[in-house]
Design goal:
This protein is mainly α. It contains 14 helices and five strands.
């Protein structure tokens, strides 16, 4: 719900809906306290049966709660849901290696769904490390807002440790790119999350994101969900024109092809791509594709010129 809540904040501003979703996810959490990725209201509120634990969604719940609390100043809701947010912090520690890296291979082997993007080729190690760091920062910011810093006093040191490990393991100073996994894969996902997490400096982020266009074999995003974070990373790195071009080319490409709602999956080079193994249906989840409204209204100086 993170991307949807951001789009809502810059469009309909139906904060009651965001609040309802935050509570619904919390109320239908798993027996171990971690959050389910999919929940339904009918015929009665329930989680999707048999769905695996979607790790990165659970971590980004904390970001959604922090941003909701700051946008609405509804600290009462944030305090009520704080124990849920704090519980999610335990998830990455289960597979945290002594060197400060998240062991994504072990987590995947144990049945965790490590999503990041629909791309089947993507090595997710670097991106997941970035998502963890980003979520820890968002959680600590929420703790500061609520006066709960003492409850998560370990976070500043943990963030520093994980960030140092990521830079040491993934950054290639010769190419200026962040790599991922045993094959040293280069992807949009890795660069985006290294920027958004703050592992990359602004200069490093600019260099990495610019280098993608001329690097052979780069793994591109498989859908609008990851493209959102790529555009966000470009803006954070000061690449405003690149962000605008990406948004107008990618989402605009769907419009030019007759889309009446943005699709869950869209690859301009692969018209047959579908996460549901049936190409006439490439979208059941339109909502996470709606974020151009967020960018256009939050950054009018970039996207409305």
């Amino acid at each position: 719900m993170f991307l949807e809540s951001q789009a809502n904040a810059y469009s309909f501003q139906n904060y009651a809906l965001t609040k309802r979703c935050l509570y619904l996810l919390a109320a239908l959490s798993r027996t171990d306290g971690y959050l389910n990725s999919n929940v339904f209201e009918s015929p009665a509120p329930h989680p999707q049966e048999g769905a695996p634990f979607l790790f990165d969604y659970a971590m980004l719940y904390n970001a959604a709660l922090n941003q909701y609390a700051r946008t609405t100043q509804d600290r009462e809701t944030a305090r009520a849901l704080w124990p849920v947010a704090k519980k999610q912090l335990e998830a990455p520690t289960i597979y945290l290696l002594p060197n400060g890296l998240f062991d994504n291979a072990a987590a995947a082997k144990d049945g965790w769904w490590l999503f990041v993007d629909w791309s089947e080729q993507l090595d997710r190690q670097a991106a997941l490390q970035g998502i963890i760091i980003y979520s820890l920062k968002q959680t600590y910011a929420l703790a500061q807002l609520l006066g709960k810093e003492k409850e998560v006093a370990q976070l500043p040191a943990q963030i520093k440790r994980l960030s140092a490990a990521a830079h040491r393991q993934f950054y290639n100073p010769q190419t200026g790119l962040f790599v991922s996994g045993p094959g040293k894969q280069v992807s949009y996902a890795s660069q985006a999350w290294m920027v958004l997490s703050g592992v990359a400096s602004k200069a490093e982020g600019q260099r990495a994101l610019k280098a993608l266009a001329t690097t052979p074999g780069v793994v591109r995003p498989g859908g609008p969900y990851l493209y959102h974070y790529v555009v966000e990373a470009m803006l954070q790195a000061g690449l405003n024109q690149e962000a605008k071009t990406t948004l107008t080319t990618y989402w605009g490409g769907m419009v030019q092809k007759g889309a009446d709602t943005f699709w869950e999956v869209y690859d301009p080079q692969n018209e047959w791509l579908s996460p549901y193994k049936f190409y006439p249906i490439n979208s059941y989840c339109h909502a996470w594709s709606c974020t151009p409204v967020y960018f256009i209204r939050k950054y009018p100086q970039v996207f409305q010129r």
